[in-house]
Amino acid sequence: MIKGANVSLAALSEDISSVIVGLGWGSPTGEGDADVSVLLLDANGKVRSDADFYFYNNPVAADGSVQLLGKTPTADGSEDRISFDLSAVPAEVGRVVVAASRYGRARFGELEGVRLTLADGSGEELLRFAVDGVDSVSALIFGELYRRGEDWKFRAVGQGYDSGLAGLATDFGVDIDDDADAVEAQEAQEAQAAQESQEAQEAVENMPGGGAAEAAVGVEAAVGIEDAGGGRGGEDGRGGKSAAASTEAPAPATGPVPAPAPAPAPAPAPAPASAEPLAAVPAPRRPDDAVPDASGTRAPASARPRTAKKKVTLPKVVRKSLAENDSWRGARLFPVSALKSDRDRETRATSVLLSVMAQVPEFGRRLTAGFGAPAGRMETFTEVTLPHGDSPRRPDGVVRVERAGKLWTALVETKTNGNALRAEQVQAYMDIAARRGYEAVITLSNDVALEGSPLVDVKIDRRRKHKVALRHLSWAEVAHHAQLLIRHEGVGNAAHAWLLQELLHYLQHENSGCHGFQNMGPAWVPVRNGIDDETLCHGDPRALEVVESWERLIRQVCLGLGGELGHKVLPVQRTGRGTDPGERRGALADRLCRDGRLRAELRIEGTPGVLAVTADLRTGKLRTYIELPAPEQGYPLSWAKRLVRCLADAPADLHVETLVEGQSGGGPRGTLERLRPEPADLLPKDGGSRITGFRLSLLKSMGSTRGNAETGFIRSVDDAVHRFYTTVVVHVERAVPRQGAVAARKATAATAATTTATTAAAATAG
């Protein structure tokens, strides 16, 4: 689509009751990001209340009409996905605005490949809109869904705001006023939420194996607080906006796209209120909970409370066991001792997963929303027999979701251990689903799907009117979502937390067969041998197989680390705009043949740099490292001393290297053990070279076998990344604030100082 164009969704697909909108972008460094937001507007083009504003701290609508699904990695960056159940959007809502914003001084012009995609309920992409001309804006309306009679249409808007999220939200009626009563109410509710959360955690601790189900069934959710974040807008105007010219004027009920406001006449002094923080507009996520004001005190980042049902998470400290000795094992809801064969493991794993999905709505919805399932009552089934020619088929499971009398159905095929999905079996389920009007076929296995490289090849009959989506989940993804809910985000009550804990224990048990990606494949040993004896030829297809296995391993490492931290951890793909995934992997395979190295980068939310890992197959060494930019202020010796001081608890064998401008080989370097008494050894000897940053790295021996045993390559990579993060990066996070947070604090202090000076001048003149 082009800017200003619109199209009827019904003309593109027959399955538009639910759609998935994706907002994507990339950056040359792999670090650029933005936060998505959705606004529901009435006939006047305004939100009905602040509850119609959805963002990272308010991601799900109570009626299921909107759900922010979070980020997923793509070939050239990341993509934020949003699920819309159009049949559940209230009748008084005429327009749904889809937007995104960047933090502080960051602008969309620093990103590349800014785009919007829209897919129907079967997952088929219906339209794509590449957004251009957004160099100077910090907030952007990508597009909008709007009603035209009984139909839904989409308009490609591409409208930017220089004033950031604050200007965008104000245009659509989001209340950004603040008062002392709201602050006091928030503080009181936060104290109440903390007390009730402690009581709920104690209820979880009293259950068997972490909690007794009957003790938790009566635990109801209480009122809690979700921090909306303090927005920092620019000027009150919208200097950077460009109106979207539409080829079809919207109906009056939908409301026009806001036109640019006239530039205000210059005033001798801004009103003091203009410098007040826009507390009810959420700022993009940052590690700081508060921002210092002009006096140096830290003001709360959010002054307007957002109430929601309190979420129950697992207690961080496990109560001491009553067992007499370590040989006693607690009773588990899902035992694994009786599993003898692969068939037993597949049957048990399917039943365990589907039953927990049905009993814990938050978990079931999380796994199925990305597949186009609506928000509704879910029921799950196992070992269902369905007719298929002369021999009936028995898929491992069936998921059905009912909403407003309509059914969404998916067939489930499960594999455990190293068993691969069989193309003919999945093809049969696709045919059955198409004939019976089902919406999806979901495959689960330990393998990790890659973009542009399907796990199974199936033929889709384009002549069929009904479309069926084929989706894949790895067991690592299932465990990742369970970890996020029970350890970080929380669920509705203690019984749900206990069920997820039992599921997670089952998936992580060695007998379950649900361990995630476990094998680098048959090409691993020949490729290693070919690199050692220098016989691996350029274009060898086995090198491409190793590169694909490496990418699967890195994605699984991201899932595991993200589940433990509660942060988004995504692989970085430093490629040009529009690069085909197959071409990119081919280039990496050629590099492997030439250099004998595999390399990957991980972007961890809140971390001041990108964590990189390199596997050198010639030397058998793994290197994990991170590059930190030099501070904007201060002296080089102060930088070196501060860096060494914040790494006081880091391993003594950590390598620290100074990055010097114009020197590709780097500058002074040494181990942390040697640098602790003499941080000045990090400074260039000539004294005139400009320091651009520091590189911190650890070396570790690489596993040789292709599996996940103690001596396996997979285990060694996972251990290396976790060790580097827990022993190095965590110290750097606390010592080196992100550039956005620094800029925000500077801007806030400058604004406050300007306001104070202006007020004093006005008083003197009076």
Describe this structure in words.
By secondary structure, the chain is α+β, with helices and mostly antiparallel strands. It contains 15 helices and 27 strands. Strands 21-22-23-24-27-25-26 form a seven-stranded antiparallel beta sheet. A six-stranded antiparallel beta sheet has the order 1-11-10-7-3-4, with helices on one face. It has a five-stranded antiparallel beta sheet with strand order 5-6-2-8-9, with no helix packed on it. Helix 2 crosses helix 8 and helix 7 packs antiparallel against helix 8. The chain is globular, with a radius of gyration of 27 Å. It starts with 5 loop residues before the first strand and ends with a helix. The C terminus is likely disordered.
- Tell me, rounded to a whole number, the average pLDDT: 77
Termini Cα gap: 57 Å
The total strand number stands at: 27
Query: Widest sheet: strand order?
Result: 21-22-23-24-27-25-26
**Main sheet overview:** 7 strands, antiparallel
Q: Tell me which oligomeric state these chains represent.
A: single chain
Strand content: 15-25%
Report low-confidence residues grouped into runs of 5 or more. 178-187, 208-281, 283-308, 737-766
> What's the alpha carbon Rg, rounded to whole Å?
27 Å
Topology (elements, then pairings):
Elements lengths: L5 E3 L9 E9 L8 E7 L11 E2 L11 E9 L2 E9 L9 E7 L10 E8 L5 E6 L8 E10 L2 E11 L2 H8 L8 H26 L7 H4 L6 E4 L63 E3 L5 E3 L5 E4 L32 H18 L1 H8 L8 E6 L14 E7 L2 E9 L8 H14 L3 E6 L23 E6 H15 L4 H15 L15 H9 L8 H25 L3 E4 L8 H15 L1 E8 L6 E6 L4 E9 L6 H11 L8 E6 L8 E3 H4 L15 E11 L11 H23 L3 H27 L1
Parallel strand pairs: 18-19, 19-20
Antiparallel strand pairs: 1-11, 2-6, 2-8, 3-4, 3-7, 5-6, 7-10, 8-9, 10-11, 12-15, 13-14, 16-17, 17-18, 21-22, 22-23, 23-24, 24-27, 25-26, 25-27
Helix pairs in contact: 2-8, 4-5, 4-8, 5-7, 7-8, 7-10, 10-11
